[in-house]
Design a protein that fits this description.
By secondary structure, the protein is α/β, with parallel strands linked by helices. It folds into 3 domains: 154 residues, Beta Barrel (OB fold (Dihydrolipoamide Acetyltransferase, E2P)); 265 residues, inorganic pyrophosphatase (n-terminal core); 110 residues, Roll (Diaminopimelate Epimerase, Chain A, domain 1). The strands form 4 sheets. Strands 3-2-4-5-6 form a 5-stranded parallel sheet, sandwiched between helices. A hairpin with a 4-residue loop joins strand 8 and strand 9. Helix 2 packs parallel to helix 18, helix 4 packs across helix 8 and helix 9 packs across helix 12. The radius of gyration is 24 Å and the shape is globular. The two termini are 18 Å apart.
Length: 567
């Protein structure tokens, strides 16, 4: 796949000003400028990310007062509170946060986490009736509910007031809810639109805590200890790690690192995680929490995060780890089949999108498969798992930068039984006999709205940095930018004319090189890059990220390859 390397422009004057004003190194100043943090005050706040200074008040939400007053009344009057979450990590962690919060108030809520295969995504009639049947008089949605007029109206008819915490879509008409906390809604009142479901659950808990404290309540829950759950949801949901999210995740990582919560301890143990980072959450902790909902019942992931029983936590963590291994096997097979089909067609370069369907694919992994296809071919992808018994399929779609896939699918809406999502991802249900029609129609739409340059994968590069210039200070500067994520990517550097001393393949698909770095050599690992055309004796330009490798109790410097080409 062709890739364009885009080197960030040098902002010399701004970087020098940062060095003078806040005392950072020239390298860190450049990296801050590249992330839009060129003003000294903003850059200092970005680096500090203090809970006491850099979180806005929850009461800025237009409906926060109404939500908190209703919940305070429910607590006072002994009413049952219900929480309706979602089956991904964001919905799981946000639901777990509210459960722990209300439990510490002596009033654990009743929960409903939908089953991916039996109920599908979002707020549905079954979940509403389930909570009402358990006696709930207030229903809080976490990571869902933003457009569910009928289901919220049903909840009202069943005697429940509804508080919606969602960040996906905005209804064209006001929801019949008691309160709506949606940061992307016009007039929501909160100035940062990037909060995820777990972040909204945190803000609801914070607002309620303020309300209860003002009414004279004592011994209120300590919200700082619940930031572990906010960090899980925020990183897993791939929302911008800036402003509130950066503060919440930075302190949440520390909570995970030092957590005594039985579920978190057990989860870290099965993952083999000792040093917690945004990467270890995204690639190790979150996939195991997601595995329960992908293949079976996501409620077990919530149970893991809220249990106070160490033995039960260890049992659940092992179960989720085993399911994650099963998920990986199912996913690998589906990815291999999808890649083979795309390559067999032989027309990917001339196409704007990829739509594939199979009765052999598990609906719980098609979203991951779509992401892998996008990574490999850099085209918007729709992967559909067909059910031969119903004659329909459940699909997941993923997009590329510059292509609003939700808008494109909206032009094909009459071909689907139902769909929803946002510009970069969507899900749908479709009759099996309409898949080919969807593929043709979507291709027509994408051909009209997709610029040619969007179809060339781009590698963003922070700056040129020769390998022999990488040292402990470099790593310390990079570490100050953690946590990484959208809007704050892990720094990537360019080194030119680098000699290759040795080459080998490790595992099934990883490239291992020994690179010259002045008077020393540095090991380099390129995950999934075994097919790269490079040999010992070559001279290459490399895009890389410096990292610390731990092995046998020893720590050493190595580089993670992002891309390479002959010099």
């Amino acid at each position: 796949m062709r890739r364009r390397w885009r080197l960030e422009s040098e902002r010399v004057a701004e970087a020098e000003h940062l060095c003078e004003e806040i005392g950072v190194s020239p390298l860190l100043a450049r990296l801050l400028c590249n992330r839009g943090q060129a003003e000294p005050a903003a850059a200092q706040a970005f680096l500090d990310a203090r809970l006491s200074q850099h979180l806005r008040s929850p009461m800025l939400f237009r409906d926060m007062g109404a939500a908190c007053e209703r919940l305070a009344a429910a607590l006072r009057d002994g009413e049952c509170i219900g929480v309706h979450g979602d089956y991904d990590v964001d919905g799981i962690s946000g639901s777990a946060l509210l459960y722990r919060f209300f439990r510490e108030l002596g009033r654990p809520p009743v929960l409903h986490i939908p089953h991916r295969l039996k109920e599908g995504y979002g707020l549905k009639e079954h979940g509403v009736r389930s909570l009402a049947g358990q006696g709930a008089r207030v229903m809080i949605t976490v990571d869902c509910g933003g457009v569910n007029h009928a289901e919220i109206e049903l909840a009202k008819q069943l005697g429940m007031d509804v508080i919606v915490c969602d960040h996906h879509q905005v209804s064209d008409t006001p929801l019949p809810a008691h309160a709506v906390l949606n940061p992307i809604e016009k007039g929501a009142g909160f100035p940062f639109a990037g909060l995820c479901g777990a972040g909204l659950a945190f803000y609801l808990a914070a607002g309620l805590r303020m309300t209860l404290r003002e009414s004279g309540a004592e011994r209120l829950p300590e919200l700082k200890r619940m930031l572990d759950l906010v960090a899980l949801g925020t990183i897993a949901d791939v929302v911008p790690v800036v402003e509130e999210n950066r503060v919440l995740v930075k302190h949440g990582l520390r909570e995970i690192e030092n957590s005594s919560n039985p579920g978190m301890v057990a989860l870290k143990s099965v993952c083999g995680v000792s040093r917690v980072s945004s990467g270890s959450i995204g690639f190790r902790l979150a996939p195991r929490l997601n595995a329960g909902g992908r293949l079976d019942d996501a409620r077990r992931s919530v149970d893991l995060l809220v249990t106070e029983d160490r033995a039960e936590a260890e049992r659940l963590a092992v179960v989720l780890d085993e399911e994650n291994q099963a998920r990986q096997r199912i996913e690998r097979q589906a990815v291999d089949e999808a890649v083979a089909e795309v390559e067999a067609r032989g027309d990917v370069e001339g196409r704007r999108g990829i739509v594939l369907a199979s009765a052999d694919w598990h609906p719980g992994v098609v979203g991951i498969v779509a992401s892998r296809i996008v990574d490999r071919f850099h085209r918007p992808a729709v992967m559909i798992a067909l059910d031969e018994t119903t004659g329909s399929g459940r699909g997941s779609a993923r997009s590329i930068a510059g292509v609003n896939l939700y808008a494109a699918l909206s032009e094909c809406e009459e071909l689907m039984i139902g769909f929803g999502g946002h510009p970069m991802a969507a899900g749908m249900t479709i009759a099996a006999d309409r898949v080919d029609e969807l593929a043709a129609r979507l291709e027509e739409v994408l051909a009209r709205v997709t610029p040619d340059e969007a179809l060339v994968a781009e590698r963003r590069v922070d700056l040129e940095l020769a390998l022999d210039q990488v040292d402990e200070q470099t790593l310390a500067d990079i570490d100050r930018l953690e946590p990484f994520g959208p809007a704050n990517p892990q720094p990537t550097f360019l080194a030119r004319s680098v000699p290759v001393h040795s080459r080998k393949v490790v595992g099934s698909s990883h490239l291992k090189l020994l690179l010259g770095a002045g008077k020393r050599t540095l090991p380099a690992i390129g995950f999934g890059m075994a097919d790269a055309e490079v040999a010992a004796g070559d001279t290459v330009d490399v895009l890389y990220r410096p990292t610390l490798s731990e092995w046998g109790g020893r720590t050493s410097l190595e580089v993670e390859l992002r891309d390479l080409r002959r010099s």
